[in-house]
Amino acid sequence: MMKKFGEVILLLLLLSFVPHAEVTRYSLPGKPALTRCRSPEKETFTCWWEPGSDGGLPTTYALYYRKENSEMVYECPDYHTAGKNSCFFNKNDTSIWVNYNITVVASNALGSTFSDPVDIDVVYIVKPNPPEKVAVTVMEDKGWPFLRVSWEPPHKADTRSGWITLIYELRVKLEGENEWEMHLAGQQKMFNIFSLRSGGRYLVQVRCKPDHGFWSEWSSASHIKVPDYFHRERSVWILITVFFAFIFLIVSWCIHINSHSLKHCILPPVPGPKIRGFDKQLLKNGKSEDIFSALVVSDFPPTSSSNYEDLLVEYLEVYIPEEQELILEESKDLQDGCLKPKGSTFDSDSGRGSCDSHTLLMDKCGEAKDDGRQTDQDGTQTGSEAQRQQAAWEQEALTYAHEDMISPDMSSGRVKTWPSVFSPLPQYSLSPLNQPSSLETAKQHCLSDSLFPPSSLSSYLTQPGQSTKEALRSSCSDFCSSNKQPLLLHPQPDARHQLQARSDVSISSISHKEAPAGLQLPTVRSTEYVEVHTVNEEDMVLLHPVPSGHSHGKGCLQTHQGEDYSKVNGVDKNNVLLLQREVMEEQVDMCPCENQDANGATESYCTSSAQKSIPCIHTALPVQEEKAVNGYVDTATMFPLPIH
Amino acid sequence: LSATVIQRSVWALLLWPSLLTVSMPLDCKEEQGSLSGCTSISQEKLLDRVIHHAELIYRVSEESCSLFEEMFLPFPLQLQSSQAGYACITKALPMPSSKSEIQQISDKWLLHSVLMLVQSWIEPLVYLQTTMDRYDHAPDMLLNKTKWVSDKLISLEQGVVVLIKKMLDEGMLATTYSEQGLFQSDVQPEMLESVMRDYTLLSCFKKDAHKMETFLKLLKCRQTDKYNCP
């Protein structure tokens, strides 16, 4: 019992020891492996291997090789020269162009393990040593530095005899940078590096390779510092700066020279109104009389015109009913809507922008007319309304025929407008509400701000009975104040010059070329027409009464019968052309000027205006007396040229 | 005696054109008053040109070999290429295999070795071209390179012959082409076998080209500096 118990205990003890005993088991060595074989000069070579596990027992390694075409196995001649786990083949043992079959064997007490065989040919495992004696120098080429790198092949490699042919490669970089710049140098032993940074520190390395092998390691870095050629770069920049400054100066000088034309190109001048004699200061002062007096041109109406043919323009008879006159009065925009006859001389003082061209003038005046309509504070008339009224007016014109206020040809009598201004208003004609005994030529001097809109005329015509002077607003077309507007009023049934001078008409224009034939006035006994004869040299409009009228050929209109609104009373401060209603007996003497005028031979207007202009405005009656009953209107006095 | 004389004269007569074809371009008299008027090349320059030729041939053959390896050779076989049953055709030629051995060889023998190598590779390269054409997807570059190498080898041979004549004063006949090659066979080989054989051919040629180049360079060294060269 005790024995058995003891055996069991012993067995247990033995079993407990067994695990400990297994720790120290021995085994075969692990399989070694040849890692690489290298030959530095194609005359010797070395092979290294990696041992496997040693299996716990001391292990020895042996290298065996076999050359091709031979079954002889040789062992490594030298295990020590090249270090641990290596085999060195010296010159005598090295054959080139011959395949070696190399195997490493690891052996320990238990056995040996063979590695996998490796075939090598020495020619293909050449890895030379790095090039030696790498020298870097700074050299100059026309002031620009460059690096010259020179080296020598590794001393072991026999390149001199041609046994090995090496090609070289070098690399350069600035200190502190990461990018290398590679250069392949071929078989030469010298190389130049250009494009250097001035003052930079460079690192240079060289390596080599046979034409059938591996690259060598890089040689140790050579440091080189490039001298500063900063001043050269600086001089270039200075040159460039000077050059550009020079160009800049030239350009700015050119711009300065041409500044005016450039300004005209870029910022064309905006034309503004200009009226000769108009003084803004006076306007600010608020004395309208002064202003208006200043505007009166001494030599208006044109009494002497060297070339009054130029002043002959077509006429326009414009009607403005009461409402429209209001509108027109308050239109203040058209300050420069001026009529200019064709070919008339322009005043240099005038607002060129609007008066420079006929078309422009037309547009301007047309705009002004529209503006006048639109700025109508009464808002009674609209454009469409005007049109309707115009149409209505034309119809009315026909109806007026029996009233003998309207010439039979009125409707057709397209009163020719001022070509420059009134072409859109060709169909105006004057409805003779009154005997147009008085020349309404003065109307040409009406300085209302706007032109006669057709509507105004038409609406006016619808009210034939309207006779108040106030109703008759002298909404007349604007004239350039400086302009001498010839007004040709030919009431006579002249083929060439036809006029229908209406008493209420502020402007009548008749194309002296075209014949508004049929404006036969003789039938209208009560209507007296004034005919503008000519415009003499002094830019004076010479008028003479219609033959049917008074025989007074002096330019004084005859007396008229009935209500006659042919006389322009004046222009009130609202630019309303005040027509006076005259009765037969009224002999409005409009010839006072003539009396003044010593020249009786000619039918001329009084050109003196300055002294009489102002009083004309204020009252109608005084004006009435002043003005010639003959129908001539001293436009100069009647209508000073105010501008609202 | 008369029979041998007649025989030799007949041989001379028969071989007369071939002599001309070989020697005519070389028959430029270097002495003054040459009849042909062609300018002869100096020995050094000729040697340089021959060396240059050999270098180029080696480089192109190396490229061709690596191309072929990439295209056709499965990776495992690359390691065993030398173990394959295909030995180099020039195995039989006695060649020096180390620098020390070369040092012991004379110039004449060096030149003759080169010539032997060149001449033994002319036909196999021609054969290689035909086999390469049979491959389905052989790249044009590979075909062009092998063609180029084959052509250049012929001119290299001519150069070496001239060189031998100049240096060694020996007249030799160039290799004559024969349409029938050693490698022609009617049986279409198996693809893998063909690939292996061709690869072996290329790699062996590459090695031999390197041999030629090295021999010629050593020869040049010996011309300039007899004592320090191997």
TrEMBL record, chain A:
Residues 31-129, 130-229 form the Fibronectin type-III domain. Belongs to the type I cytokine receptor family. Type 1 subfamily. Keywords: Disulfide bond, Glycoprotein, Membrane, Metal-binding, Receptor, Repeat, Signal, Transmembrane, Transmembrane helix, Zinc. Residues 368-393 are annotated as: Disordered. Gene3D superfamilies: Immunoglobulins. This is a receptor for the anterior pituitary hormone prolactin. GO terms for molecular function: cytokine binding; cytokine receptor activity; metal ion binding. Residues 377-393 have a biased composition (Low complexity). Residues 1-21 form the signal peptide. SUPFAM superfamilies: Fibronectin type III. This is Prolactin receptor. Its main location: membrane.
TrEMBL record, chain B:
InterPro entries: 4_helix_cytokine-like_core, Somatotropin/Prolactin, Somatotropin_CS. The keyword Secreted applies. One of its GO terms (molecular function) is growth hormone activity. Residues 1-23 form the signal peptide. Pfam families: Hormone_1. One of its GO terms (biological process) is animal organ development. The keyword NADP does not apply. It is found in: Secreted. Keywords: Disulfide bond, Glycoprotein, Hormone, Secreted, Signal. Belongs to the somatotropin/prolactin family. This is Somatolactin alpha.
